[in-house]
Please model this.
Amino acid sequence: MRRLFYLLLGGLVLYGAYWFAAHRLFDEGSYRKQVAFGSVFVPYGWAYALGFLLGLVLLLLLYSLLHTAVANRLQGRRRSPWPLFLQGLTHLFLWVLILLVYYPVVQVVAASFDPTNNLFSFRRPETGFLLLDAKVIPYLPRPSLENYAALVQGVVLYPYQVGLLLLAGLALVGVALIGLLRRLLPEEDWMDLWQGRLLLLLTLAVFALALLLSPRQFTGQGTEAKFLLWVRNTFLISGLTGLLAVLLTATAGYAFARFRHLPGRYPMLLFFIFVQMFPGFLALVAIYYLLSRLDLLNTFTGLVLAYSGGIISFGTWVYKGYLESISPSLEEAAMVDGATKWQVFTKILLPLSAPMFVFIFLLQFVGTYSEFVLANLVLTGVESWNVGVGLRSFTTGQFQTKWGIFAAASVLGSLPILFLFYGFQQYFVSGYTAGAVKE
Amino acid sequence: MRKALAVLALGLSLALAQGKITVWTHFGGPELEWLKKQAQAFERTSGTKVEVVEVPFGDIKQKFILGAPQGQAADLVVSIPHDWLGEMAQAGVLEPMGKYVTQGYLADLQDVAIDAFTFGGKLFGLPAFAESVALIYNKKYVKEAPKTWEEFLALARQHTTGSTFGFLYNIGDPYFNFGFFKAFGAENVFPKDAKGNLDPSRLLLSGEAAERALTFIRDLRFRYNLVPEGVDYGVADGAFKDGALAMIINGPWALGDYKKAKIDFGIAPFPTPPGARAPWGPFLGVQGVVVNAYSKNKTAAVNFAKTLITGKNLVSFNQAGGRIPVSKSAAKTLEKDPVVAGFSRVFALGTPMPNIPEMGKVWGPWANAINLAIQRPDSNIKKIVEDMVAEIRKGIGR
Amino acid sequence: MRHPPGLKGFLLALALLLGLVLLAAGVGLLGFFTLEAYVALPGWTILVLALLVLVPGAVAVGRLFPWLSDWYYFLPALAFLLVFTLYPIGLTVYLAFTDYSGARNGFPDRSTETRVVGQEGARLRLEEPVKEALRCDPCVGEPVEVYAEGHRMRARILEAEGETLLLDRTPPFAAGFVAKVNAFRFVGLKNFAFILSQASQALLPVFAWNVVFAGSTVLLNALLGLVLGLVLNNRALKLRNFYRTVLIVSWALPGVITVQVWVALLNYNFGAINRLLGVLGVYPIPWLNDPDWAKVAILLVNLWLGFPYMMTATLGALSTIPDELYEAAKVDGATPWQALWGITLPLLEKPMVPILLSSFAFNFNNFYIIYLLTGGGPAQEGRLATAQATDILISWAYKTAFSAEGQSAYGLGAAISLLIFAITVAISLVNFRATGALREVR
Model:
């Protein structure tokens, strides 16, 4: 019965999709048979592509048949070729998917090395190679770092800042090396220890650099020359927001998880949950007046405080869930020995909670990294922008489209988050799933 | 003795005029440099520190209206387009300039510019430069500007090939399209009442004029096959810079880039569209400097504004970015400049954009209507116009 | 001393805590205004003063009521919530019932500024006739601002005749100018009535698309995530950790940046996607220019952004299924297909349902993808300029209050925010009911 219901529902959805495609997407008004200017059109190109894929599949089939036949002959066993073929098909599918997923990434990275803005130009390259001429494969007649140079133009670094930068770079290399070693060698204790230390060093060096840089060191002309300043601002803003999130949520999460005896804990919890459902940034005007009253407009502190409202509930919830998954027996034993609740919290639970704090910090850091609505309201003037507002200005500037610069800035601006994500992948995965399951 | 007095006076004024003013600007590149130089010069003569803050054009109005009463906005904005004037003046954030400037000072500014910055009978800013769109053509493809629609169409079709375009422009934006509405009978957005003030209770962008204009714009895409889908400002501008476009509708702000791209261009009015009643005529926009009504240092702000808007400084401004000054003396100096001369001819055909606050309720629905009309070849123009008029009416009535 | 039990205890604790916070805020404000008379202070002194009261106050109250100390663990979070979340929410709720907007912002309209030429107590004579100068008819009851260099005062008009007007208060200084105030008023439910009166042009289609958008996004992402999760969970697959790491790239990149990149890629003429399609023999698709295609574009981009999360979640859920089950099934002679339908999918349901529901709630208010990818556009026939083809509720509210099309209609925007709040709460209640999350907590 239930299955029938699902089947019916699925059929309905499919029919709806079909109707939408036939009557709305591919009707004459929406889909016109007209080749775009400057693009290469190959009639029945899809047939060639499909043929190519089919060829690959046939090759796979051939390979698995032959391989199994040879192996069977050599080892005198009788194995079916189909698992091998299936495995091959899976790899093919995954590689096609990877190609699709990475296609935008490749295009942007290519555009960032292209000073001629080829992607957004009408000139058609004439190389004789179809995919290049169609710009399906990025055409880079003369790759250069010009776009990146425009972003760092006029940036003056003091020697000790260069030193910090080198230190951060070395730490990064170290972390990457250890990560590589972990793949190659059997796991050893020192790897974990040193990876942790190097990561700490890296973080400290980067934040020290962010603190020590001043807007005066960015002397370049043009808005884009302030890009690194935006990155520095963002590190300060998002870093502080992350720290504040941890500070505010730790005690509340502890109380929710452990003080089950408190009357009114449940309504309090409901309050925490439901208050975060208000679409926070729509209260822009109110936040504006509040910050203006406190003389904190156009300051990073003000922006951090404005962000702080939106993070408390989720962080508290996640941390509460985490503590509940830890058995309270250790704490109870300590209590019997006469420890106070505060001692239990600081001495026993805080050290245990490091991974969760890292997750809450990262979540906040990543979440506010390229935020632009509140930031644009609070921060005025190119020098105080964060990455989000700055990048937005490249695409919406009254009458400007600097795609090459935008691509370069996107690549550079994504790197810190990409690094954080892959560096702390396990925290993200466990934290997200823990939080989501509980939510 | 006199010298000593003068020095004393200068010293005194320096000591008195201590303080700082903040300027918001959307200028970039050489124009920003020009402004910073002016600010330094002003600092030297008056002793007031001037801080120039870059704020994107699109953010200025809202930030200023929200921030000024809270003491959180700049003392001075360089510059705002005059169609924001009514809204900003009504919100109370602009200082009336009447008491700061003399008739003699104003005499050097063109009347149309003064009118643009006058709202409710009061002058709310000092106009600096004028702009409008015009037909800009690449002389590589178009030797002489087309005089008639037939010539234009022939030229545009001739150059619409696989690798070049005949004619493109920012087709979805009402500002770029007003010329067609005017040609088909909508002289302005609102009519003038007996006293010569704009009357927002009646709308000229309606009925047959609007329908015919929208039909013509739609025809540009679907009948004449000139402006394909996906063309916005960036695409058209990029194509012209690439040298792949023969004709574009654009304004003086873009010319710096065209010169940099070494395009040999000419400026002309768009020819009268087929079946139109009147010649094409664009919106005439004036940008000017305004002073914050809540500024703590109004005198200094006004003084700085006045030093910016002088014949001499506007000429140097024109040399920095190519904008067209509204100062009569500057215009005279620049008479020979082909850009100034070309746009002056276009300005003569233009209609000043309304500066009353109700104009703010028009742009959104108007743009919506144009985009709807060009979405499909069979768009229901009559209904689109009706919906647009209803939404604007409702907006103004609220 | 033990904690007083039950509701009474809770209310008492809450009252004490709130009292503390309010006392601190009050002292901060008062102290600030007193000090301000002597020295120029930045506004955040209020916060510092409040903190100076709050900390010793908390200690003192803690001495008096030792049982309260447990509640102090909530205090930092609670104080921040009160100031930076609850206060803005309260103000927004208030604004939703007013006609507050850019043009009605409670400040004087300088275009009505008129010089005062004579003054007798509260009776002022203006340069021009009152009705024309202040553009009001009738002028009685209109709020005005009277000012001169260094002074300003608000008053109401009691009488207006010819060039003279009588105010309800006497300015304590020599009046220089009068201007009408753009007062905003309490309008009751008018904003909501306006929303409902235009429901067919905005609310209904926007809400419908909002639900379809969030639902299809979850469905599509979950399907791809499920397939990938199942494929990558296969231990026999070589390189599966590599695939896992490589495929989450779109989750690891900042979405605000990648969505803007997609705008470039989906451009009709230049976009890499249409170029690719051209080579495949497909005519260019108006991804961002056609009301229907724009919806498809949004779903596809959101799929690109969101499937890694679903994939990871599926893998996490799959890892909780014990291997013994499969082995037992194998012994019983079940085919892999039967194992999938009989074991994997039913067991996935429990951990996946809350993930799907929270993902639905998240996407329901996913402002960034809509705003950055299409800006709510393109235009659609019969819709308001602020509520176009791909607008969802939250982008509609944002455009109404904060963008050029909406003309800073803050009151109306606030009313829409309240609607969104109500809907979000409703969805979450369903969510909690389905997952039993709250019961478990209780």
